[in-house]
Amino acid sequence: MAKKLMKGNEAIGEAAIRAGADRYFAYPITPQTEVAEYLARRLPEVGGVFVQAESELGASNMIFGAASSGKRVFTSSSSPGISLMSEALSYITSAELPCVFINVCRAGPGLGGILPSQGDYFQATRASGHGDFRLIVLAPSTVQEAVEHMMVAFDLADKYRNPVMIFADGLIGQMMEPVDFDAVETGTPADHSSWAATGANGREKHIIKTLYLNPADNEAHNHHLAEKYATITKHEQKHEMYGGLGKPELIITAFGTAARVCKTAIDVLNGEGVDIALFRPISLYPFPAVAIDELSRKAHVKQFLSVEMNNGQMIEDVRLYTNNRKPISFFGRQGGIVPSPEEVIDAIRNLLPKKATAAAKKPAAKKTATKKPAAKKK
Amino acid sequence: MAEKTIFCKPEAMSSNHTHYCPGCTHGVAHRLVAEVLDELGMRERTIGVAPVGCSVLCYNYFNCDFLEAAHGRAPAFATGMKRVAPEKIVFAYQGDGDLASIGGNEILHAANRGEKITVIFVNNAIYGMTGGQMAPTTLPGQVTTTSPTGRDVELAGWPIRVRELLSTLRTPAYIARGSVHSPQWAIKTKAMIRKAFQYQDKNTCFSMVEILSTCPTNWGMTPTDSTKWLKENMIPYYPLGELKSPEGADENFERMTGVAK
């Protein structure tokens, strides 16, 4: 199929339909509202279900009810809405229901702002609601990748009976890019007849619940979930390496939109002969731990720089999974500001020995917008 | 002489013993729902939604598929299920704290969207599971652990009449209030429950039956005194009967609001 120019939010909605998920429950919130607007138009055309819920609480709990049928269902929201949905995420994960949540992340905390951010990294990768639970979290950095993630998300949700979160940001939701829906194949929806609530017709009743009053039963359930997360951690780590001239001495870690900006910075610096590369986690949970551990052991890798659109969240996983073998610095913009390639280049130059960049020194980038990327001490 | 069965456990009820306190009327409400599911032949295509509260474990007593909702969210769960499986019968079973307090928004909007679900709303004017706290339906002056000198309407407001509140919505619905304090009213209430499920089955409208119920343990009364207290105190504030039906919904709306359609 020819590529089609689409806005990220609309492409995400269309991708879901192509993945066989035509049941959607949501509440409007900027900057993801176009997902709902697109699907309000589109779902009736394909015989699907669109419900505008009374709140994100309503939408996410409708998802619980709908996912209990075993059918492919999904919702989308943005940061403050995901906070409200965190109640349902805890229940849905405990009840082991397959479904997909999209977070088109905006700047927080509180009402924050409506511009792009990655401030929900902790929220997405740790249990955002109560209790021990994990989501599978995929972070696209282009509209095409958002489409691909949407289409595999339902298969992953089916496979593990666990909610999957697409962690996009306001930039990916709002920008228009060419997309090809045929670039990725989606699997056939799994057979959920052994547990789905479809009516006890000629079989024992199915109960979908999360209450375990007996602590031993609850512990056993938690152990079961932990085993599942271990399996997910073993099999679902995804990352991309980008750039470098053979033996990069500095590795940038960045995901989503921040990684995109870093790619531009790396192209410029690689062009000047500066050997640096990007490590881009695609799965935020599970974090690509094996790959970054190996990378951190290489002698030529002298240091890491985590570039994020927040105050430094993923850097904690970088520290954890590189076991602090090499120095790790941070550069970030917050409040809805996307870092510019020039800022990232400056941050990189400040970390490298003078000789590495002296030959290719350029006029200084705008200093006012640059924060000194001092290594964080926590 | 061959024996003839004249009374038995409904198929829609399991054989499990309930965990309810002696004298609690949840068991009666359960049975009325189960009898209706049997009589309408719906059990095998019914999905129930349990609340958080005393009846959280009601899926152990009903013999049909069941979901266990988050506190107050049962109408949203039921909405999700019914919208993706409109051929099923979906009902939520909720208490007064669950439905009228933490789940106030969910019930309001499910009713207003006209979801084709049935809600069984058990109102015993108190939080039972947590040990007798003030509910949105606790009567003025009623003593609970969080209103130790009695509900003060100046501070806590007046009890919410959910049947009346939802009946003001323009969207057609079947909304009624029954009670299980007496056999006569149990029978009348069962007829309301039957109507509610029938409206759902015909895809007509949202339906809710509020059931006045007792809580001897947290009211601190014997079961007999509890039914007497319900009759003398709850019914005057929560009058029984159907308040809204899909038939004549426009006239009903005009009568309630003074606004012509």
Structural overview:
The complex is a heterodimer of chains A (378) and B (261). By secondary structure, chain A is α/β, with parallel strands linked by helices. In chain A, 40% of the residues lie in helices and 18% in strands. In chain A, the strands form 3 sheets. Chain A has a 7-stranded mixed β-sheet with strand order 3-2-4-5-7-6-13, with helices on both faces. In chain A, strands 10-12-11-14-15 form a 5-stranded mixed β-sheet, sandwiched between helices. In chain A, strands 1-8 form a two-stranded antiparallel sheet. Chain A is globular. By secondary structure, chain B is α/β, with parallel strands linked by helices. Chain B has a single domain, classed as Rossmann fold, CATH 3.40.50. In chain B, 38% of the residues lie in helices and 15% in strands. In chain B, α1 packs across α7 and α3 (96-102) packs across α4 (104-113). β9 (207-208) of chain A pairs parallel with β2 (65-68) of chain B, so a sheet runs across the interface.
List the helices and strands and how they pair.
The complex is a heterodimer of chains A (378) and B (261).
Chain A: E1 4-7, H1 8-18, E2 23-26, H2 33-45, E3 49-52, H3 56-67, E4 73-77, H4 79-95, E5 99-105, H5 121-125, E6 136-138, H6 143-160, E7 163-169, H7 170-174, E8 176-179, E9 207-208, H8 215-235, E10 239-243, E11 250-253, H9 256-271, E12 276-281, E13 283-285, H10 289-297, E14 303-308, H11 314-322, E15 328-332, H12 341-351, H13 354-358
Parallel strand pairs in A: 2-3, 2-4, 4-5, 5-7, 6-7, 11-12, 11-14, 14-15
Antiparallel strand pairs in A: 1-8, 6-13, 10-12
Helix pairs in contact in A: 1-2, 1-6, 3-4, 9-12, 10-11
Chain B: H1 26-39, E1 46-50, E2 65-68, H2 74-84, E3 89-95, H3 96-102, H4 104-113, E4 118-123, H5 153-156, H6 162-167, E5 173-179, H7 183-201, E6 206-212, H8 216-219, H9 223-237, E7 241-244, H10 249-257
Parallel strand pairs in B: 1-2, 1-3, 3-4, 4-6, 5-6
Antiparallel strand pairs in B: 5-7
Helix pairs in contact in B: 1-7, 3-4
